[in-house]
Amino acid sequence: MRASLLQIAVKPDESVAARRARAADLVREQRGADLVVLPELWPVGAFAYESFAAEAEPLRGPTYEAMAQAARDAGLWLHAGSIVERAPGGALYNTSLVFGPDGGLAGSYRKIHRFGFDQGEAVLMAAGQDMVTVPHPLLPFGVATCYDLRFPELFRGLVDAGARAFVVSAGWPERRRAHWTLLARARAVENQAYVLACGTAGTHAGVEQAGHSIVVDPWGEVLAEAGPGEETLTAELDPGKVAATREQFPALKDRVLGTPPPTRA
């Protein structure tokens, strides 16, 4: 199974429309991949708080349409990163979109853990309520976004829902890059699942981005890691390795606290 993570930059001199078209072209270039992933809030920038309201769009807005068409043209599964969604009632959400090879919506996830404490995303956006898994035929995966990576209970819930991988789109800052790598590997090891974590390059509203998108296997081994700049990171995954890891080292069966482990491998 081939996965491609598109670590794009949010360039200050590039319009949202131009970046949307560029991202769609990058997706089309990945024809033959089994899964393509884009970062968090790449249309506007994860830290461009002052632009959230102006650039908000309905779920089935211009980014949805562009990404659905790109997935359809390339015939691949696409986690299209996230957008600032304006819900019918007016609330804003940090919403991830996942498309199947036919361009149909395979899942949408509203970010549960909002970053910023008492400012930024935490006060400008509403919190999602529901965990989301996507039934990819080769590797069913759970969806998480950036700050979610710090909350292991979310990932345990996704495992119980059948996830064998986690796809994390992010706009993670460079000053906490060590946490990014550590947490991605921790979520893989403790859940014996693949982690595909796609970040952005460049600078969002003066905040330097970490880049360093990463793919981690169920043993916690780093299969591929990007540098700080724009890059397409590609990795080959073995879907059977999840079941094999959980059988060889059945730590999930020894869980005592929380939801009981799933019965399937």
Question: What this model shows, in words?
Answer:
With 265 residues, this protein is an alpha/beta fold. The protein has a single domain (2-254), classed as Nitrilase/N-carbamoyl-D-aminoacid amidohydrolase. Helix content is 25%, strand content 25%. The chain contains seven helices and 14 strands. The chain has helices spanning 16-28, 52-55, 62-74, 121-124, 152-160, 177-191, 240-248, and strands spanning 2-7, 35-37, 77-86, 92-99, 105-110, 133-134, 141-145, 165-169, 194-198, 203-204, 207-208, 214-216, 222-225, 231-236. Strands 5-4-3-2-1-14 form a six-stranded mixed sheet. Strand 6 and strand 7 form a beta hairpin. 48% of the residues are buried. The mean pLDDT is 96.
Summarize the structure.
The protein has a single domain, classed as Nitrilase/N-carbamoyl-D-aminoacid amidohydrolase (4-Layer Sandwich), CATH 3.60.110. The chain is 25% helix and 25% strand.
